[in-house]
Amino acid sequence: MKRALIIMAKAARLGRVKTRLAASLPAEAVVDLYRCMIEDTIDLARSVSTDAIAIVCPTSDVADLASWLPAIEVVGQQGEGLAAGLVSAFRIFLDRGYQRVVAIDGDSPQLPPETLDKAFQLLDGADVVVGPTIDGGYYLVGSRTGQAELFDTQRMGTGSALDSLMANAQRLSLRVALTETGYDVDEAEDLARLAGELRLFPHRARRTAAWLARRPELHR
What we know:
Elements: E1 3-8, H1 27-46, E2 52-57, H2 62-68, E3 73-76, H3 81-95, E4 100-104, H4 113-122, E5 128-132, E6 138-143, H5 161-171, E7 176-178, H6 188-200, H7 206-213
Parallel strand pairs: 1-2, 1-4, 2-3, 5-7
Antiparallel strand pairs: 4-6, 5-6
Helix pairs in contact: 1-7
């Protein structure tokens, strides 16, 4: 079954990415960190057996991302916001003939490749696969049907995003499988957790690990 792995991203601009980290890091540092995380996420994606890897982003960001990351396809989404981006990702790549599409965020470059491979495998017996986060969201969602009704624009990015997705899947009579629980890097404590994890496993996200190693104040 043809597999497509999609990374949801934005252009690395001041005040546009990882905004909740601005309380603990200078704006320029947040952008540098975001660049490391996205580039490491691309490396992670390339370590998994897939038939296509692409970035889906707001249309206004396509040129910047294509210039920054010329070796990967960058696709502009229809509509605004993450929910619209996910709907676009599934519609575009399922329409291209891929039978298994998994979308991941750029906040989890430390994931083991086995987690992504497992997500594709779970789609052999499920309609939707979800990687839940400890804050009530999800770092990964995969589908072989791509119904737009799965994604709630009002709850995306909130602590009820996962519950909303699960409820929508149940209403649509879709079978759901879960991968391991993970975490997003949204707050300073999330970044400290990532720093601790990458001290032990720096090979999982080499750029991010090196960046964090230069900021010992972020380690706990």
